[in-house]
Amino acid sequence: MRRRSLAEMVVGDLTDKIKAGAFHAGDKLPTEPEVMSEFGVSRTVVREAISRMQAAGLVETRHGIGTFVLPPSSSATVDIGTVVTVRDVMAMLELRISLETEAAALAAIRRSDEHLERMGQAVAAFEREIAAGKLAVEADFDFHLQIARATGNRYFESVFRGLGHTTIPRTRLDTARIAAIAEPDYLTQTGREHQAIMEGIARHDAESARAAMRMHLSNSRERLRKIGD
């Protein structure tokens, strides 16, 4: 509970500054170390705060660059504080299956070379982070976001941004539960699934992309089902 209250404090302060005009649309927020120093909190707290602000559609994180303020939007949002149990996360995955399988198919039809390059960058970042022993949450989210962008339909991106990091199951479960589903090759398998999705999109093969995305999200749901029984 303490970490959550600290994250809410950081969110509240940064949100107030955005609303007061201290940060405008397009402005880059202070870096993680700067926020840690200002509030006297850990990196984990800062990342949770930024995740909450992403879910609220206030900011976006550009991998390797920083976090930037978004213009006011009416995009759909989810109260990520309500996504806390295994059952909640499984329900989120059900929503993602219905949304992202079609997004992958549309991305395969409509993607540009630039879209594909950005997906490849996200996949490479994911592989680097898991090799370093990290959970690779940001790279995971970025990969799926790039697919939403490649649909050419702004509403897919809007909804996905609104959902924020609640879309990544391991951000919503405590360490013990992560350990229960994170067998040694769990993240390596996730990386292979990402690669299969991207390969379908690269070939402009809508059915393969759709099937690979469904398999990826269904595998995540099955892992969660095992620890929820």
Automatic annotation (TrEMBL):
The keyword DNA-binding is annotated on this UniProt entry: yes
Classification via Pfam families: FCD (PF07729), GntR (PF00392)
Keywords annotated in UniProt: DNA-binding, Transcription, Transcription regulation
Residue intervals of the HTH gntR-type domain: 4-72
InterPro entries: GntR_C, TF_FadR/GntR_C, Tscrpt_reg_HTH_GntR, WH-like_DNA-bd_sf, WH_DNA-bd_sf
A molecular-function term among this protein's GO annotations: DNA-binding transcription factor activity
This protein's record includes keyword Transcription: yes
Domain of life, source organism: Bacteria
UniProt-listed PANTHER family: TRANSCRIPTIONAL REGULATOR, GNTR FAMILY, UXU OPERON TRANSCRIPTIONAL REGULATOR
Name of the protein described by the UniProt record: GntR family transcriptional regulator
Organism per entry: Pleomorphomonas carboxyditropha
